[in-house]
Amino acid sequence: MIEVYTKEYWLNELKESAEFLESLYRTTIWDNELEFKTEKAVFIGCYAIRKLRESQLLSSSVCGLNTSLISHPVRVDFIENNDENWYKKYTFSQSNNQELALKSLCNQFIHSKIYSPFLPSGLGCVGFFFASDTECKKHVYYIQLIKVVNIFLSVVHNKSINLELEINGAKVSAKNIKNHT
Questions:
Q1: Most CB atoms closer than 10 Å: which of 25, 101, 151, 170?
Q2: What is the Cα gyration radius of the chain?
């Protein structure tokens, strides 16, 4: 349980994580330390949301948020081999639109067997592939980075936040993020 008097510290942590994650759009050099910091921000953020929710310190409107994302099914011809990379297990040419409730989304990250930032060539991090130990047997999820930032800021501000991406050549950023951080 999170005590009411520590709620603001958890929310500040979420806000800092959202700012950090949004900055990944402009990061072109990816190294082990940045990968660690990114994973830490996502997992601590999801854990904070779960603890705030369990402690009944979030409004019902925030607890009721759903997030749209994409799932990719397991390949039909896949034969389990522990030596193979996780991505060889899935059919990325097939995708399904799905919605996950806030609780389910956070639990997928917290219990993830698969967690991988998506770094297209020449760009920074734009999203994450992830799936819990149970869901990875059926599919892997993909969520855009901006949606994770939106979720974190929605919890911080106790209302739905839907930032849009602003693209100016190779420079990508969340439009109006300064209004929410």
A1: 151
A2: 17
